[in-house]
Structures
1.
Amino acid sequence: MRSIIANYALEAKDGDGKPSGNFFLDETQAKAAAAEVLATHKGLVGKTADAYMNSYWAKSWSHFDVNGGGSIEAVRAP
């Protein structure tokens, strides 16, 4: 969780533009986190990782972004 927040998550702002303490990932950040996990835990890098992401990413993202809002809560990322 610490890695997700420190390296990938974006912090939402309140109405005054101040940090709200709520962290989320848009599709770009989530895809980057997924690529790191594939590399470190499954040893998938380069063309192999690209092929895997091309096969599974869209389905995985739509599973977690069920409302189609374009982002997910950081706590759902791990």
2.
Amino acid sequence: MATFVGGIYAAWLLPDSLLRFILWVVTHTIYRIKVLGRDNIPERGGALFICNHLSHVDALLLMSSTDRHIKFLMYKGIYEKGAMKPFARILGVIPIASEQRPRENDSITSRGK
């Protein structure tokens, strides 16, 4: 019982870690991922990962292929969809829209902090 309560408390404190773990399990169960050149990813500092978006699973595969915490950009139209928004907020996704000016996009991300 204490382990269950501790697990619930940890999930409440760190929902992004729980969601990332669940997504890692799902992607490694469904896909056979082979990462080449993982040693080229710096342990600290900035790095830019680019997906070619062959599917909507690209972000999940990228997230499960590295130990680093990754921030994603997402089109605001997809971000605002009902089922997507809670998960995107937990993962710290940054919504962007081409119709808005950069400062307007910046105000969206500052509200989510």
